[in-house]
# Entry
Amino acid sequence: MNLFKNKVGLIVPVVALLVIFVFSLTLFPSAKVQPVQLPVALVNEDEGFQLPNQPEMNMGSTMVEMIEQMTSANPAQAEAFRWIEVGSEEEVKEGLDDQEYYAALVIPGDFSQKQASLRTEQPAASEIIIYINQGMNPAASTLAGQALGGIVDKMNVSVREQLLSGFDAQNALLTAKQASLLASPIQKQVINVNETGTQSANGNAPVSLLQPLWMASIASAAILYIALRKAQARTLNERLLSKVYQIGITAAAGIGVGFGLTWLARDMVGFAIPQYTDTAWFLTIAFISFCLLQTAVVSWLGLQGISIFALMLFFGIPLMTLAPELMSSFYREWIYSWLPMRFLVEGLRELFFFDQGLSWSQISVLTWIGLASAGVIMLSVYKPLAAADQKSLQG
# Structure
């Protein structure tokens, strides 16, 4: 049979393995998450304290030194976190709102005073504040917060041992209150800031909106390409007019998509969208930008260019849920940094979780992508027609 002489079947296993390899690459980023230089703020406001007939103490400075020693003694932790010393709690709050830190540890001004009180008959628990910047990235901020909590726990053990050694050296008896506080001489107050809330798909609402918007832009670009190809514009002026029409339809569709998707997300899916109108306009701009980008590629490469954006979606979705510091250098530098959809996710995070209205900083890159793509679309009128299109026009 000719069927058995056909060598095309021999490449099926190779093609199957190649497809498996390509699509397995989308699983690697989330399968092996290893933080690299997560920025974490450290604030020491401790004013120090001096007991009668005792040298002045500053437990805040001691704790900062202990953190540095712990980090240097643990290479994995030294690689995972980047400690940034900040001058004050107010300054660190601004940094959290500006998405500079995933978490922060604050040592209050009365820390040494309360630590010293543990040696007296009127002891008071000292407290350290840990800020978790949820909206920046839930996974990364939780990881940073857990690391800070673990550091405080280790410090608790060290401080407790030092205090007990001091009491033992003095043969001092502990009061009931002292004994109770020595169980945990340093209290942790964990504060979530820029919270993601309960109606945000665990903080992944921006990523959830990416997929339908991206697919809608792909479908729109393909439909417009097919429709205009069938229109068979003959002259240069007709082709120019068809491209203007293509861009105009994309802009008009963008308004419907932006406001429609925002309404569906809030009223049908149940996402919390605090900036409704701003979110709708942002999604409008994002759709127009993406659709024009895809149309520009299709205008020069034909419908096969759509495959590029399908692959972008497959690779992009897993990466969009991760912070850049949780990716390997390959994914962070060669894939994530080139994905236009990241500007959508970053902008939506600011609108959803950081109480920010629509601003030029959010839409600037998307706007330039759209304008550049529109220019490429207009230039495509000078592209030589394919043989099939020339034959169709001549017929």
In short: The longest strand covers residues 126-133. Residues 129 and 189 are 5 Å apart (CA to CA). The radius of gyration is 29 Å. The mean pLDDT is 87.
